[in-house]
Amino acid sequence: MKRRHCSAALAAGLLLGAWPVRATAAADGSPPVILVVGDSLSAEYGLARGRGWVALLEERLAQQRLRARVVNASVSGDTTAGGRSRLGALLQQHRPAVVVIELGGNDALRGLPLTGTRDNLRAMIRASREAGARVLLLGMDMPPNYGERFRADFRAIYADLAREEKVALVPFFLAGVADGPQAAALFQPDRIHPNEKAQPILLDNVWPQLRRLLPKG
């Protein structure tokens, strides 16, 4: 989520298309691509390389003999505006079958307008579908000190978009980590970023929905 030096990549949006396209295995026989676009929660901030949940996802795919290639395009400190500005080039380069969007926490931490967060996430969803990808949206929450009204409005962004855009949703990406009785033991000293022990839990939160989106064949 928030990093001491944050990305300044705030750029113009994407041209959008609204029609979903069924994701299939690549026509040339290469493994379908899972593109993860996130912030420090997915970029292995503070972790040894290869120990974050996205790296564990690659291991699980191999263990279950599922043909897929994972591209982790996460950037520590990124916002939804930053992700939106980067997404077009990522879609063109990797042509993913599935796009996992894990963004929004830094928007809230910086006090950015929630309307902008909603618009940026919607744009990313629609651009991903236009490119032929299925979308998995990872929901987020804020700590109690942000106030229940703000937290409810923030959480609603993800639930509303999943319903309106008909995409898959993990309601709370940090479930069992931030809201469990052992939360203190699952975070790095900054109390913001989950530690290595938490990474398998994060993957388990994502896996059921992601598995359903993987193309056949």
Task: Provide an overview of this structure.
- Keywords: Hydrolase, Signal.
- Its EC number is 3.1.1.1.
- The chain is an alpha/beta fold and 217 residues long.
- The protein has a single domain (33-212), classed as SGNH hydrolase (Rossmann fold), CATH 3.40.50.
- Helices cover 37% and strands 11% of the residues.
- It has helices at 53-63, 80-94, 105-109, 114-130, 148-165, 199-213; strands at 33-38, 69-72, 98-102, 134-138, 168-170.
- Strands 2-1-3-4-5 form a 5-stranded parallel β-sheet, with helices on both faces.
- α2 packs parallel to α4 (114-130) and α4 (114-130) runs parallel beside α5.
- It is globular.
> How would a textbook summarize the main sheet?
5 strands, parallel
Overall number of domains? 1
CATH structural class:
Alpha Beta
Mean pLDDT: 89
SS-based class? alpha/beta
Order of helices and strands: EHEHEHHEHEH
Overall morphology: globular
Number of separate helices: 6
Number of strands: 5
Range of helix content: 25-40%
Classify the beta-strand content into a percent band: 5-15%
Write out the strand line-up for the largest beta sheet, numbering strands in chain order: 2-1-3-4-5
CATH architecture: 3-Layer(aba) Sandwich
CATH superfamily: SGNH hydrolase
Contiguous runs where pLDDT drops below 50 for at least 5 residues: 1-24
